[in-house]
Amino acid sequence: MFETNFKNEFVEIRGHKIGLNENKLIKIPIDRLPTGTLIEIPVYIFNGKEAGPTILLQGGLHGDEVNSVELIRRMLIDKSYKIQRGCVIVVPLLNVFGFLSLSRDMHGKDVNRSFPGSKRGSLASRMAYYLMKELVQNVDFGIDYHTGGEQRCNYPQVRYTAEDKNAKELATIFNAPYMFTSKLISKSFRNECYKHNVPILVFEGGESLRLDELSIKKGIQGTLNILRNFNMISKDVIIQKSDLSIEITKHKWIRAKIAGLFSTVIANGDKVKKGQTLGYIMDTYGETHFLVKAPYDGYIIAINNFPIINMGDAIFHIGT
Ligand SMILES: [Zn+2]
After folding, report:
1. Quick one: which H or E segment has residue 141?
2. What pLDDT, on the 0 to 100 scale, is given for residue 233?
3. Span 268-277, pLDDT tens digits
4. Class of domain 249-319 as given by CATH
5. How far is the CA of 188 from the centre of ligand 1 (A)?
6. Fold agreement between 10-229 and 249-319
7. 186-203 tens-digit pLDDT
8. 110 CA → ligand 1 middle, Å
9. Per-residue confidence (pLDDT) for residue 1, from 0 to 100
10. Strand, helix or coil at 206?
11. Strand 298-304 relative to strand 314-319: parallel, antiparallel, unpaired?
């Protein structure tokens, strides 16, 4: 069992010490705009009465992945972080710049490919550096919330590092509709945390720049499952029950064989049978329909919602 020597007597961030039974909002200054405006990242710390695990809950590493920001915001409003044991460090929106410019990136660079970062690097690189130095050094594990890209809607799912047994255990506890291992990507946040022995779960739900109620709810539910498991929140908090997470062992995007107008006939998250019609690609000016069929039995774990498709575009992500 993952539960080992958690002993958060206090966490220290930017010189602020937050002891047991203390809550605090710290604003970490990151940069100034060319106009001189100071950009700060708000970080909430909720430390319980009793020592326990310290968890990082991080939204908006990609600035346009708004479901991550919304689910963390909603948990703040719902007072879900009434922590009795252990500590949560909550970052509602890491990439303020991407959020403002409706972009995944920070000044044209992906923070999630900028680790370990450096003190004097680009903004993305500095962000990565301070995230590791100020926050990750305090935590036992973390949840990094994401969404699919533009128009690519991920059915709520958790991805974890195969080499990390604790991450699999956390993924099982989170209990998203789907869970699967994901390779460590060089210079990514999860990869850097793995090197520091900090398991990271990546929750994915919905698509960028669109709020998706199911993804938000599943993200909150999974987070509460984690907090409950480590006895961090009261037993009175009601968590909606759901079916056990389906473990996906293989997954592949199905690509469009022709270009045209694309529409689906199944729903994201559906279980499908080999040969079943999943959608149509229609000749834009004519009557011809090209049927998109399931190449094998599986589960739809993501759908491309874009209606105008080019040959080779990824349209359905199917897991088995
Ligand atoms: Zn992302």
Report:
1. strand 141-148
2. 96
3. 999 999 999 9
4. mainly beta
5. 11
6. no
7. 999 999 999 999 999 999
8. 9
9. 52
10. strand
11. antiparallel
